[in-house]
Amino acid sequence: KSANPQWREQFDFHYFSDRKDMLDIEVWRKDNKKHEELLGTCQVDITALPMKQTNRLELPLQKHPGSLLMLIAVAPCTGVSISDLCVCPLGDPNERQQISQRYCIKNSFWNIKDIGFLQVKVLKAVDLLAADFSGKSDPFCVLELGNDMLQTHTVYKNLNPEWNKVFTFPIKDIHDVLEVTVFDEDGDKPPDFLGKVAIPLLSV
To answer: Interior CA angle at 148 toward 142 and 154, to 5°?
Structure first.
């Protein structure tokens, strides 16, 4: 019941320079009957923003009255990566040696916030639930660690998908839990839940 809402929410996105450069934003209205109405959209060209500083933006909504006030900071993406099995970070002897040097005992206090990193190889899933009428699913896998979230591509019409991807996360809290969730892609609708596993870092 507000025409001037304040959310004060923070979202972290992993932005890679070879990906889409536009941040798309939508504002929606929902009433008690679960009816939703689009109140407006706007876009931010990430490449036009100065790096390593907080940018205060007032964005007018396209074709609708009103505007959004946002703070957007673009910083180098360190420690987070997605790669194929053949080029995973720990597979390169030189990179493995640099990592070993970085986390050796004598460098323990060089950067207190740099606890370490986690490398996860997502190979495949077996005997997934059939979510479509065809008896198949369109599965993709989402990995979450703290505020970091990465996901695989979708393998269509398959109950035994193979992704063969390597994900690297910086560890900010050794008590975090890695959550791995499998969803079925469902076009414009929200994805269907196919299963989940939680792995505490302390158990690795």
So the answer is: 20
